[in-house]
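Model it.
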Amino acid sequence: MTPNPEAPSPGTYRDGVWSGLQRAMAAVTALFAVSWSMLLLSSGGRLAPAVLATAVLFTALAATLTVRGALVRLGRHDVWAAVGVSLVTQTVFAVERPSQIVVGLRCEPTAATVLLAIGFGPRRLAWPVSLAVTGAQITASWPMDGPTAAVQGTWPVLTAAVAAAVLGPLLRTAAARADAAQEQALTAGATVARAHARREAHHRFQDLLHDEVSSALRAVSMPGIATTQVRQACRSAVDALLRVPAASGKAADLAALLTRLTPEAGRP
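Modeled.
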């Protein structure tokens, strides 16, 4: 299945928030699955075939969302599946007008769809989808409950919508700030580490260069050393001097370099 483009990268604070919201969604749909399963068990064959099929369909959807919310990323495919089931469910309720399906059960397909759309679906479709399924619920409940009760029956859906619209972005914003702070800390640490490594490399090179030049100078100044050894010492010193890094486009100033390499008092 195509990955959810809204989902954050694994291992981030935003990923932790996303996973927590998914587990909360899984808990809600698990409760929906249990409540509709109890309806199926207690109906005793009194449900019309269309209503029974609809109840089985939504129970299966709720169970599927429970498993998916706990194991994989929820995304637009889950939203569209919930939209389809919700619209079919409300259409059947509008036609059949089942007395066994109380308003508390009728709003659950809508609430699940709204939570999915606002919490895990594409942002541009969240509110249009939520309004569409809420309107479908009001339309289905109107003939059974009347206009006032039909509108009042949407309060669980509205509560779910407000909670998802407020808490979700709030948590994700806090997580995004934590991710940004962590990234800045890592970047600063890497910069400091690179600067320290450059200083260490420079100091080690300077020490090596000092040793090579000092050895050559001692070989030249001390009598009794074989000519081949003197040449080898001088060649090593020249090679070390040639390895001195120079500024871009400029030659190394060997006189200045040798001045900096003058042994300190007491140093051989």
